[in-house]
Design goal:
96 residues; mainly beta; Immunoglobulin-like; 6-stranded mixed sheet; 4-stranded antiparallel sheet; 10 strands; 0% helix
Length: 96
């Protein structure tokens, strides 16, 4: 069984992708990946992950939301987890 994970961070206040956002992926206490989003706000975190419960942590460009953490359960296949953030709110969803 193999999983992969990518993300996309959008600054909804500015109406554009958020470049240079630090993103960490952890399995328990182990750091699996640490990346920054590219100019289009996208990042590929890992390929060939094992199934399990992973924590995805973002440090977005928001004066209020300094760190956003999501715990996701990965099984077989590719997962895309976008983050939409502004000074007033943040949300995520399972993308494709």
């Amino acid at each position: 069984m193999s999983c992969s994970l990518s993300t996309h961070v959008l600054d909804t206040a500015a109406g554009k992708p958020a470049a240079g956002v630090p993103v960490e992926l952890r399995l328990g206490d182990d750091l699996v990946a640490a990346v920054e989003t590219d100019a289009d706000g996208r990042a590929r975190l890992a390929d060939d992950l094992g199934a399990g419960s992973y924590t995805l942590a973002f440090s977005p460009p928001s004066p209020f939301f300094r760190r956003v953490e999501l715990t996701v359960e990965l099984e077989d296949g590719h997962y895309h987890v976008p983050l939409l953030v502004s000074p007033f709110g943040c949300t995520s969803y399972r993308g494709s």
